[in-house]
Amino acid sequence: MTQYSTSGCAVVVAAAPQQRLVNVRVAGDLDADAEPALSEVVARVAALTPERVFVDLGEVAFAGSTLAHFLARLVGVLPQAMPVTVCRPGPMHQWVLDAAGMTQILMISSHPAGLALDLEDGSRGRC
User: Which of 3, 26, 29, 68 is most exposed, with minimal Cβ within 10 Å?
Assistant: First the structure.
């Protein structure tokens, strides 16, 4: 499990290598200050070469265009057919994703994905 932090945002990337799944959990404010950490997250996820990616927004307080930009970069570094699921988007997040046209390239789940993962640190997690 790897954590990236800025003054108002924290992102945890947890991988289940044997299942080739990655969970990205975001908390706090996704604004311009979060860009450096989000760039590191995109690079980390790409390096893990997963077959499936889940991005949990359940603890995101604020998200603007930085959210759409982050998800577009994430989708852009992954193989075209790979599903990226956004979990627990709030109304604000959903509006941003709709306005940016991201809902056409992402899977949206109103609750955790439901896939229990054996994470690198031995714990089990969900989206």
Answer: 3
